[in-house]
Amino acid sequence: MKLAFLGLGVMGYPMAGHLAKAGHDVTVYNRSTAKAEAWTKEYRGQHRASPAEAAEDAAIVFMCVGNDDDVRAIALGPRGAFAGMKPGAILADHTTASAEVARELEREAKGKGLGFLDAPVSGGQAGAVNGRLTVMVGGAEASFRTAEPVMRHYGQAVTLMGPAGSGQLTKMVNQIMLAGLIEGLAEGLNFAMRAGLDASQVAAVIAKGAAQSWQLENRAPTMIEGKFDFGFAVDWMRKDLGICLAEARRNKSALPVAALVDQFYARIQERGGTRWDTSSLIHLLAKP
Amino acid sequence: MKLAFLGLGVMGYPMAGHLAKAGHDVTVYNRSTAKAEAWTKEYRGQHRASPAEAAEDAAIVFMCVGNDDDVRAIALGPRGAFAGMKPGAILADHTTASAEVARELEREAKGKGLGFLDAPVSGGQAGAVNGRLTVMVGGAEASFRTAEPVMRHYGQAVTLMGPAGSGQLTKMVNQIMLAGLIEGLAEGLNFAMRAGLDASQVAAVIAKGAAQSWQLENRAPTMIEGKFDFGFAVDWMRKDLGICLAEARRNKSALPVAALVDQFYARIQERGGTRWDTSSLIHLLAKP
Prior knowledge:
Two copies of one chain form a homodimer. With 288 residues, chain A is α/β, with parallel strands linked by helices. Chain A has 14 helices and nine strands. In chain A, strands 1, 2, 3, 4, 5, 6, 7, 8 and 9 form a nine-stranded mixed sheet that branches. The longest helix of chain A is centred in the middle third of the chain and has 29 residues. The N and C termini of chain A lie far apart (54 Å). At the A-B interface, strand 9, helix 9, helix 10, helix 11 and helix 12 of A face strand 9, helix 9, helix 10, helix 11 and helix 12 of B.
């Protein structure tokens, strides 16, 4: 299938790679050309100088960029994807962005006879590299049916959650849950260390019971070690929590702990941890 | 082996039952005699009128009561367990209590030539009934080696965490982690419902990723339903968080979210939810 992929960051680069490796004809675009050239070399695809040109012949145009502003620029700009896409083509946006921008892009797409899916992912860089992402999709069912088998090349779970924006809203729920979960984990492990317990043994025992979580099993060892130079960066988490808190004002849901944890991440940014993994919440407790 | 079990509440009753079913000779004591009689009938054991009498010939005396004051009364009172135990016997306390009372009881035990283990459990009533509890033990290794095979009759994991008090401290870590985890889950699910998503579908999708937890898999369905008349009661959680917060003042660890969630549980008590499951945190968000 003729595909395009716009945005070759830590997520987009390997995701586009999976599509090429699966035999699809992939044309890419990236703001910095060097990365597009490296990708083209590695996967024998083509790259173009603008989203519009890259999108020209594609049945599905994927994108994965930074934030709402980037999404608007890459999709709606004068040389943006919508300006190049052929009738009936689908734009699938893997960026974690607001539900509003998703609804806005769907309206624009409809007006042009195009399809649109918001399709944020979870699973991080490792999930993108291993093709084990969770893809949460919002949009029309017909577009989903076309895009879903293609997304399976990097998605272990690809699910239609509802109309446009529903993918983004689902991703928000994920980040809200993570905020409380990781802070609880950080407070527990820090308490364990200050109480003189063997925190690794405590984590292993607790993981057998009702406080079990993926984060406990996968992040406790590095939290105890104080190792944070990997994973999902605090800057990205703050971007995501900002989206959650803005949406919560609209749908009138209270997020007392997510809001508090967002402030903790602001303090981690202040102490230079902008690129640290989200598990660095324990740093504030261990070194207040 | 000759054993005693003191305290036949929702946990102690089935735990003592597992010991009898395994062929041990179990003598029980309970404050209200009716329960002791019922237990004796069901499991063909004996019951006595005081902890001292029940403990008389036992190699290991187990207890599972309400709080620090109950532990002190049952162990140290004039007709308490220590007054009846034979030299070399071990008192194993399954109550969730403070680390201080554990250290106090170990000192008392040593002075009398007895052994002491603090051994709080997690896994709830279901774990007690099914014999699948996690037992977190503090105390001397020799006492642990004697008691561990017996505890295995109701414990799927029985682990020595360190010296006296370490079992209690480990249980505290568990409760601290749960506080943040359940509040994160509650905020996420409430947000999902207010955003118009299918919260059950959202929970199923998110459980495949980095926000996976036992609580998400086992409590999301009832949280979405608003069903809380089961499980681990808010009153008990407040007792446990009270112990955690007091210990945190001593070991100087910050518990910003656990302290906040403790206040949320206080509000649930005020609205009549004293016996609701801990997952009722979502009730405050759904019906503020």
